[in-house]
Known about the structure:
alpha/beta
Amino acid sequence: MPDSLLPISKTTFIGPFEVGRLAYGCWRFSGSTVAGATVKIEAALEIGANLVDTAAIYGFGDEGFGAAEAVLGDVYAANARLREKTVLVTKGGIHPPVPYDSRASNLIDSCEGSLARLKSDVIDVFLVHRPDLLASYDEVAEALTQLRAAGKIREAGVSNFSHTQIRALQSKLDFALVANQPEFSPLAIEPLEDGTLDIAQEMNLAVMAWSPLGGGRLTATHQPEAGTQEARVLSVLDSIATRESVGVDHVALAWVLAHPAVSMALIGTQNVDRIKDSAKAYDVKLSRQDWYDVLVAARGVSMP
């Protein structure tokens, strides 16, 4: 029986939107010039990464919310064609030092603030950034329903929600959530076992894996301490990378995208060459043995 997994497809869907399976995250856009940020968006589009992800909290500091969104908004204002070419995702509901506030009025205000900073008439997919344990699902659903009915968002989803939280929120809505954005990488494998990826397949949610390179730890430049999870995983990734003539980061991205529930991996590098180079992930030919070897290295124990 052939051991090779199917080649990684380059496109997928989030709700009605066709997008690349590599997506571009703008969490580090704060402080970027419009010209510099524009080059990064154009580089992402060059490799098919037409989904652009940001959040009200990105770049939070002395000047308050929205620093990263504001840069992206200035890019759109200067280059209207780029807004037309991208699927725009942003998130709301984090309010340091509270930390979370998903009352209906706050989510609506957050979305309206994002629209103003992003200089856009509508957000394609609006996500609740993290679950607010003090907000009822009825109230969160009320906010998403109002925003969608008003045409301020096209679709809604969540980020960092557990499978039970997703199901509870969905039960209060008369339209389908389209996405969940969990942390997932060979160094963050909890979604494989905590129901996150299972419910995504059950409910047809697009899974947007954030930090697929473990916050930069799954790169050739990282030197982990011997015997750690990072060292084990990097050793296996490096072996595959050598065979495939790619970088360990490309293998890590391919590993994430190989799971049937994962729609896309969010890349966030600010280096234009590395953005373009990320497309090598599509060329990696993983076998089932490769994929499970990485998982065993991550877990530190053999498969049962």
